[in-house]
Structure formats: C-alpha cells, structure tokens
Give the backbone structure.
Amino acid sequence: MDSILQGFSLLFNIKVILVILISAIYGLFVGAIPGLTATMATALLIPFTFFMDPVPALVSIVTMEAMAIFAGDIPAALVRIPGTPSSAAYTQDSFELTKQGKAEMVLGVDVVFSVIGGLIGAFILMTAAPLLAEIAFKFTTFEYFWLATMGLSVTVMVSRGSQIKGALSLILGLFLSTIGVDITLGYPRFTFGSVELLNGINFIPAMIGLFGVSEVFRSVMEGELAYPIARVQARKIFKGMWKLCKRFKVNILRSGLLGTFIGILPGAGADIAAWIAYALSKRGSKEPEKYGSGSIEAIADAGTANNSCLAGAWIPALVFGIPGDSITAILIGVLFMKGLRPGPMIFERQPEILYAVYLSFILANLLMIPFGYLAIKSSSQMLRAPRNILMPGILIFCIVGSFAINNTIFDVGVMLVMGILGYFLEGNGFPVAPVVLGIVLGPIVEKNFMMSMIKTDWDMTQFFTRPISAILCVMTLLIWFFPLGGVLWRKIKSRARSRR
Amino acid sequence: MRWVGGFEFYGLMKRNDIIAGGMFIALGLFIFTQTHKFPSLEKGHPGPDLFPNLLAFLFIAFGAVLVFKAGKLSPQNTEPSFSTPKKISNALFVLGIVAIYVIVVNKIGFLITSAVLLFLLMKKLGVPFAKSVFASILITLFINLLFSKILRVPLPYGILGW
C-alpha cells in the first residue's frame, strides 16, 4: 500500500505531469503523420529520457506510445494512409466508412476502443506482472537462455512477409550485438582496432539511425505526398458510442485479451496484434462480407487489440528484461541507462516505480479521450504539416540526439551507418524490428548460455532437466513446430480432398 | 503504401533478393575468417568464437535459402521497385551532407553547420528560398535551446564560438 501511495506521489507532481502532457502531444503528432512511427518516436525520445529521472522517463514513453498508436488511426480514416503500421490492418475499412460519410463514427470508435483496449492491457499488466515476477525469482541462467531463445523464435515466426528475411534481420541484429569485448575472456571481437567499438555499438544512436534516419532517407526518396483530407466534425465523434460498446462487448473482451497476449509474446508488437485481431474478428463476425469494404466491427476489434498490446509488451520487459516489441526493446536500453536492471528484483526493491508505470498507463489512456478529441479537431492542420521542412528537422534532431548521449561524433557516424542499413533492409522487404530485438536479445542468449556451460563444465543436460527450464524448452520447440505442423496438416487435408 | 500489406514488393525483388542473399553469405564467410583468430577457453572449449561462428553459419544457410527461393520467382517480376535518378540524388545528397556535417561540425561549430545543413536540404526538397532560410534558423535555435540550454549537452561550438 505504501508503495502505491509512493507511486502516486511520484506521478502526480508538476514536473511529471508536464512531461506527460508534452509526451501526449508529441505522440499524437508523430502517430498522425504518415511515415513517422511510434518506434521512431521512442528512438527520438531517448536522448531526452537520458536527462530525466527514471519515473518521468518511463512515463513519457508510456504516454507517447499510447497516443501514437491511437493517432495512427486518424490518417487511416481521413486519407487512407495508416499513421503507424499498427493501423494498417483496418485502414481500408476506416476509409471506406469515411467515404460513406461516417468519418465521425470511425474516429469515435478509434478513440473509445483504443482507450478501452489500453485499459484492459494496463489491468492485465498490473495483475500479471507481479505474479510472473514471483516465478522469475526462481530463474537462473538456464531459464533466461530459453526465454531469450523463445523471444528469438517468436520474432522470426511473426515477421510479416518472408520469414527467411525476418530470420536474416534477426541474425544481423545478433551479429551486431557481438561487436565489442566478449563476456568470457574479454576478447575484443570485430572492433578492428577501434577503441570506440570496444564497448560495442552504442544502442541509442543505432536505434535513432535504424528508425529515424532511415525514415528520412525514405521520405526524401518518395518526395512530397499530396492527398485530399476528408473533413470531420469533431464534436460528433462520441455520438452513439455507448451503444456500440454494448454491441461489441464480446469483441472488446476478446480483442483486449488477445492483444495483451500478443504483446506479452516476446517479439510480436501492436501491428501484429491488429492483423490477428482483424482476422479473428472476421471469422467470428455475422457480417464477414463487410470486411474490407467498411466494417465498423473490424475497426473495433483491431483498434482494441493494438492498444491493449502496448501494456502487454511491458510485462516480459519489466519481469524478465526480454522485450515484448520493438518499443520495449528500446525501453530496456533506457532502463539500463537509468541504472534499473529489469527483472524480478525491481518488483522487490523499487515497487513504487512500477506503480507509477501502472498508473501512468491508466492516466495516459484516460487522457486519450480529451487529447484524442483535440487531435481529431486539428487533424487537417496536422496532416498538412510540410514534410519537406519536417524531415530536415528530424534529421538534425537525430544527429544532435545521437551526439548528446556520449558527446562524441563517432556516435553520429554509427547513426548514419545504421540509417543506411535500415533503409536498405526495409526497401528490400527485410523487417527492421527483428534487428533491434536481435541487438537486445543477443547478449542475453550468449551470456546465459556461456555462463551455464562454464558453471556445469560443459554439461548440457541441465538445460533440459531443470523443471522450469524444461517447460520453457518445450514451449520454444512448440513455437518452432507449430507453423510446420500447420503446413503438414494443410498438405494432408488437401491430399485427402483430392483423393475424394 | 509501402507498409499497408507489407507484401506488395516481395514479388518484385528477384534480383535484389539474389544480391542480398549473396551479401549475407559473404558476411558469414567474412565472420569465419575473423573468428579463427579468436582464443578458446581452457581445455579447448569454444569461447568468444562460439556465438559468432553459429551466426556465420546461419547467415550462410539462410542467405543460400534466400538466393535459392529468389531463383524460383517468375522472371516477369524482376523489376526493381523504386529508384529514379532524382530520388537517388536526394538520398545521396542526405548521405553526403551528413558525412560532411560530421567532419566539419567540430571546427565550424554547431549553429552554423546545422543551419547550413537544414537550409541546403530544404532547398533540395523544393522549399522556397525565404522559407528555407527562416525555417532552418528557427529549427537550429530551437534545438540549441533544447539541448544546450535545457539539457546542458556540450554541443561543439567550433573556433568562432558559434
């Protein structure tokens, strides 16, 4: 109880509230502008969190991501371009409804169901994280090895498009994580005599490069986008929402739980949650023929799922130090920077920080109602923000942000190289998120494996005989064989059908 | 849009996939040439080289699968998905301008270098002259205020003190 009150007092002071308000506006702006993603927003936020106390730093990420994922729905409805990839699943439906003159209803559903989804996720985070932390106390290097391996496996399984390319992106991230002094002997690997590389590639400039600079490159390649923007009357957006909530109560619950679960899975984020919720929604719907040509049910489901996913992704990040999505991968970097080691110990030693995070999830989602309204009201101005001025601004921000962490120009070079890398990867269909997860999970996999082996004098059996370790091992194998099983099953079925 | 389905471009990339796969295979081979110099743990157990070797093997294996799969794509889908001369020149311009920025910022100083970078880039992207001047000065001053005055980052101010 004491720590809950402490959490309250950490959150409700003028400085933190100010941070929340600024982060909210920042998140709405970035989310609403196509081409600027929530992950990029997080990457650009880190240089600032570097100079903040832990609580405002974490709270700013919470608020920003909640607002950004919602705001991505605005251009989806008004100009048929998702503001962030998480709105892509239901962009078509949103815009079709707008063409039918129902833009107010779509945006109303976007706000209200995002809020509900976010609150469901927050509630599960608050109840599940402490319980999982109890279990996490029993974890040793063997269990962490399996957990990280599981994360790597999920990352590849859920990559959209080609899994081969997802795997190669991940391996590239893992390789980047091996640069620098190794943990067993302190031997410098792949540093080529550079003193700056001894500590490895600096995480923050790497993130800013991968997500920020690569986006600038892409934008200058695409040129100015001109699009007609549909008009909305913001004051009408909440009309009839109560009725829709009652009508879709089962959808809300299903997609809220599903989204949170996908968030918890290491490696799968809000965009995946929206796609899966959309597919499930269509399967369970009484009007599946409307999907793709303007289904409000689809928007309700997927819009709930992508926001509930956010809090879900914080669960493995806080409890095990294993990121749930690319945003929490960056978050883990921020935690370490703040001297907070993610893991069960935080739950024992600094519970007040966690309570502040939980509360901020609730607060951010409630704030989404007035802020969402304002964002929709000013949507046409936001969507007209001139990209040919914005992008140079973002570039200089990336440069100064990368420099600010260690005050070295070397890091700006790292940023540039990673920016080129990110640009080429994405331009050729290689997803970038697995690279980040690889960079974060790589040291966890390697360190825990090597420590386990040295502890047992290279006896592998403990990886399989320790009870929790064995369970995690089976779960990892299931992830590997689940899609394979699916393919086999379809083959058997089609063969049986052709015989008939 | 690019990310709407995420699938649109996958069919278009036969040639690019073969090049990418080849580059990953080359990276894998390169890692092997480095790791054999790494020391082992006592009793000859693998140490610093174990993980990179595994990754090198995976680079080669998955890279080969990528090349193989691309080889099976139908040839009418082989057109590259983007790149007109103007777009490429824009991207190279960004690359060049940041590289020059990195080299000269310590000598010339943050304020001038940043404003010039912003101005040149905005001009290149088609912003009118007066607007470019105004916006680049404004953004530079804003960032200077934010990072140097509020966050107290020691930005390089060069020989002129700017």
